[in-house]
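ESCALATION

Customer reports they have been waiting on this structure for their group meeting. Please prioritize. Original submission:
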Amino acid sequence: MNNKDFFLKTLEEEAPKFRVAIDALPEDKYEHKVHERSRAAGNLAAQLGLQWKAISGIITAGAPAFNPHEMENQSKEDMLSAFDKGMAQLQKDVQEISLEDWENGDANMGDVWKDKKYHMAWGFLFDAIHHRGQLATYLRAMGAVVPSIYGPSADTQN
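Update from on-call: job pushed to the front of the queue and completed.
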């Protein structure tokens, strides 16, 4: 299995875990923060809805397609819809990119990060996994049910 195929397989395995994490956020707790300097739970969930669009931009155009203003004022329905649409498009984009472009195409985030497309795509996926874990800790702190992500959580065990 090559790196591109492994990335696609990883997306397919991780997608439902992202979706349940977003869906677990109570709609009346979007402003919840675990610390005054922390991001709001709704902002984290909205990012998880949109991160896939950013990775598609890396794959197709060599730069993340991400506007942070798109994370504002999102309902859970908006977040889940953006997630479903973005993940489907990303999976299509990964399937369609040539292995040559995946491995050797350049990606650029201005002065912040310049790298190969595959490396930046993995970095954005790892960032999303990090934020999913962050959201899971918020869920516990706000008294919501932490969903099963990698096996049962303490909240989902009988």
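Sent to customer with the following note: DSSP finds five helices and two strands in the chain.
Escalation resolved.
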